[in-house]
């Protein structure tokens, strides 16, 4: 049985060139970049070069990149670090009700500490408006955290327009770009963001490494305390092999981005064409909003998601019903709940297909045909 991986929004296979870079660096660059001897200086050179590459990928300066253990730490640093640094200016936070839990759960924790959080509600495309942000703003607002592109349905938010709105406001603007980084071009100045989170394992890099972009001049309180690494903003010896491999993954992603966008759009078309040919009843869960090209969230009326996922897995098709971070939970997707309401049948019959490295038109067609067969068998 051929296995077809269609869950790239959860995590991605490591690119062979990235694996080779990781192993080579792991074996040859073991010095601590804080050490002044030759081994330390060599490690520092690799660290600095990787930081430059990653900064250039979002049109930032190297000093604005803070290495983290991944997207969750980057989000937590952005949220907690900002509000603690800004608490003398206010205690109000604005976010959305479809953020990743790496933002939502810190916000819930801050509510327990006395902060006020406004959760903007999305429409049935999973999108908010600039007007909603403007209406929610107060003179006590210190942080606005709105994801660039949603990890479950792919909807892209009006980040650039929100950034323009906040230009004269004291609030710090953070965007979780974990799902978008390496998929679409990002330019921090054009977006008007102060903080931006990314993670390597979403773009064929290793797990356990990411970064937080922090605009020059912005003060945040560290979340980790210890040494003076990362300009005293994130303590802990830097993971040089993972960082260097991360930079290699970014270079590859940038070179392939344009062609990947074309490929992913084509894959989505192939899948829906097969569904139509096989007379499968389905509905796209994002109908009229700009979205990330690699994510396709589909509702199959009359099916049950648990049995559907099991049958797809038995057929060798790896997909998901939502965020990988909550895949073990029986609770329905908070994203789909926000979009369609608690009583919607879509909460129990929606599948996320997500595309990436290693797929071809042939494997996509095979996956679509198998999916169509399983859906038709599963309809009650």
From TrEMBL:
It is an enzyme of class 2 (transferase). Its EC number is 2.8.1.7. Pfam families: Aminotran_5. InterPro entries: Aminotrans_V_dom, Aminotrans_V_PyrdxlP_BS, Cysteine_dSase, PyrdxlP-dep_Trfase, PyrdxlP-dep_Trfase_major, PyrdxlP-dep_Trfase_small. Its cofactor is pyridoxal 5'-phosphate. Keywords: Iron, Iron-sulfur, Metal-binding, Pyridoxal phosphate, Transferase. Signal peptide: none annotated. One of its GO terms (molecular function) is cysteine desulfurase activity. Residues 4-365 form the Aminotransferase class V domain. It catalyses: (sulfur carrier)-H + L-cysteine = (sulfur carrier)-SH + L-alanine. It comes from the Bacteria. NCBIfam families: PRK02948.1. Belongs to the class-V pyridoxal-phosphate-dependent aminotransferase family. NifS/IscS subfamily. This is cysteine desulfurase. It comes from Sporosarcina psychrophila (Bacillus psychrophilus).
């Amino acid at each position: 049985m051929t296995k077809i991986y269609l869950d790239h929004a959860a995590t991605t296979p490591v690119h062979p060139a990235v694996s080779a870079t990781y192993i080579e660096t792991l074996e040859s660059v073991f010095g601590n970049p804080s050490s002044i001897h030759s081994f330390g200086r060599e490690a520092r050179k690799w660290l600095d070069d990787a930081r430059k590459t990653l900064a250039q990928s979002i049109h930032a300066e190297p000093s604005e990149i803070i290495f983290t253990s991944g997207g969750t730490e980057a989000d937590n640093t952005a949220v907690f670090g900002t509000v603690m640094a800004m608490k003398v200016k206010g205690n109000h936070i604005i976010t959305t009700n479809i953020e990743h839990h790496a933002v939502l759960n810190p916000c819930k924790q801050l509510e327990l500490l006395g902060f006020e959080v406004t959760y903007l509600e999305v429409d049935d495309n999973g999108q908010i408006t600039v007007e909603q942000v403007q209406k929610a703003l107060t003179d006590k607002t210190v942080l606005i955290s709105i994801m660039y592109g949603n990890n479950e349905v792919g909807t892209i938010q009006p980040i650039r327009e929100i950034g323009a709105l906040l230009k004269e406001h004291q609030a710090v603007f953070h965007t979780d770009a974990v799902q978008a980084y390496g998929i679409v071009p990002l330019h921090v100045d054009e977006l008007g963001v102060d903080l931006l989170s990314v993670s390597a394992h979403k773009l064929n890099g290793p797990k356990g490494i990411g970064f937080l972009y922090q605009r020059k001049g912005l003060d945040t309180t560290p979340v980790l305390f210890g040494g003076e690494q990362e300009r005293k903003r994130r303590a802990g010896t830097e993971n040089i092999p993972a960082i260097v491999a991360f930079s290699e993954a970014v270079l590859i992603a940038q070179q392939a981005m344009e062609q990947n966008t074309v490929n992913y759009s084509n894959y989505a078309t192939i899948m829906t064409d097969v569904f139509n040919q096989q007379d499968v009843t389905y509905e796209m869960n994002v109908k009229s909003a700009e979205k990330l090209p690699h994510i396709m969230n589909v509702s199959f009326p009359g099916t049950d998601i648990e049995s559907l996922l099991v049958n797809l897995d038995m057929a060798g098709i790896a997909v998901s019903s939502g965020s990988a971070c909550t895949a073990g939970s029986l609770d329905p997707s908070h994203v789909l709940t926000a979009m369609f309401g608690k009583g919607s049948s879509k909460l129990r019959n929606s599948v996320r297909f997500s595309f990436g490295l290693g797929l071809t038109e042939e494997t996509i067609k095979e996956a679509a045909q198998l999916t169509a067969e399983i859906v038709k068998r599963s309809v009650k």
